[in-house]
Write a structure and sequence with these properties.
By secondary structure, this protein is mainly beta. The chain has two domains: 178 residues, Diaminopimelate Epimerase, Chain A, domain 1; 138 residues, Diaminopimelate Epimerase, Chain A, domain 1 (Roll), CATH 3.10.310.10. The chain has four helices and 24 strands. The strands form three sheets. The chain has an 18-stranded mixed β-sheet that branches. It has a four-stranded antiparallel β-sheet with strand order 21-20-19-24, with no helix packed on it.
Length: 341
């Protein structure tokens, strides 16, 4: 029996299970187990599982490494909302160890998309330097333009309809299309068609954007590997770049998402920045069974089965505006009934 300690954070409803993985060079659970953990009926429920690992050996320019599994088990290059949650999670871990730096503080996080630098501020806000957007078709990647050209305002046939799209990578690939009414988009129907379109060999995140004003944009997103989510930080950055290049917005704008608002800036030095206020943190000690979860909640038993459940209501407490819940559950990796499939 192994116990997996985790915290759960969300950025505008884009929620993640975060795991302290500093003592191991590989994620503590497999992609298949991450799928079970992210299941919103029989698992914890999340858009992804994020692991904080130590910096690569011998690299003094990096503080930590980020790995992430999407809810379908795939591994993206990075995640904008996720890395902001990760910055707060790291600071909390350091505080527990008695080694937290004074705020504001910028972390240097190694990701599959390169080094990302989130700045954690004393008021709880997190600003992330997303770096320069990638615009060349071969680097996104997409076949909508020649390898050395930009894929801006290109025609894409999806679901029997022509869409004008622009493609941008913020370390992960995005396809942006502007619409008159973002609420009218049949996201669950059309999102998968974009994600798996042959024009995107690595699949794609898709943002549907309504321009309310040059400084105010509304967005809904279908994320590669996670489906419809309440927010996407890299997507918000990508859509601002696309909106500027299409002459539809200012370089600084508010992006409204289903989960809330992000302040996005594409600076004159071509680097993207986004700012967001941390909201809710739920801390737990977790273990997942395929069809049975048993938890000791302050010495009481919480049992859930597929068709029936007997629960003891957990207690919550609030500290500095953050909501906390603590649960102890055992996880089994044996070949018996506790195996995660």
């Amino acid at each position: 029996m192994t116990t997996l300690s985790f915290s759960k954070y969300h950025g505008l409803g884009n929620d993640f299970v975060l795991v302290d993985n500093r003592a191991s060079e590989a994620p503590l659970i497999t992609p298949e187990q991450a799928v079970a953990v992210c299941d919103r009926n029989f698992g914890i429920g999340a858009d992804g599982v994020i692991f904080v690992l130590s910096a690569p050996k011998g690299n003094e320019e990096i503080d930590y490494t980020m790995r992430i599994y999407n809810s379908d088990g795939s591994e993206p290059e990075m995640c904008g909302n996720g890395i902001r949650c990760l910055a707060k999670f790291i600071h909390n871990l350091e505080a527990k160890d008695g080694a937290a730096p004074e705020l504001p503080h910028t972390y240097r996080i190694h990701t599959l998309a390169g080094t990302i630098r989130p700045e954690l501020k004393a008021d709880g806000q997190v600003t992330v330097d997303m770096g320069e957007p990638v615009l060349l078709a071969s680097e996104i990647p997409t076949t909508l333009a020649a390898a050395g050209e930009k894929a801006i305002d290109k025609t894409l046939q999806v679901g029997g309809k022509a869409h004008q799209v622009s493609c941008v990578s913020m370390g992960n690939p995005h396809c942006i299309t502007f619409v008159d009414d973002v609420e009218a988009v049949p996201l669950a129907e059309i999102g998968p068609l974009f994600e798996h379109h042959e024009a995107f060999p690595s699949r794609i995140n898709t943002e549907f954007v309504e321009v309310v004003r040059p400084d105010y944009l509304k967005m809904r997103v279908w994320e590669r590997g996670a489906g419809a989510t309440l927010a996407c930080g890299t997507g918000a950055c990508a859509l601002l770049v696309a909106a500027v290049l299409n002459g539809k917005s200012d370089r600084q704008a508010t992006v409204e998402l289903p989960g809330g608002h992000l302040e996005i800036e594409w600076a004159a030095n071509k680097r993207g920045f986004m700012t967001w206020q941390l909201a809710i943190c739920i801390r737990r000690l977790i273990g997942c069974y395929r069809a049975l979860m048993r938890a000791a909640i302050w010495g009481q038993i919480f049992t859930c089965r597929e068709r029936s459940q007997r629960c003891v209501r957990p207690r919550f407490f609030v500290s500095r505006g953050l909501l906390f819940l603590s649960i102890n559950i055992a996880i089994s990796r044996s070949t018996g009934h506790g195996q995660l499939d």
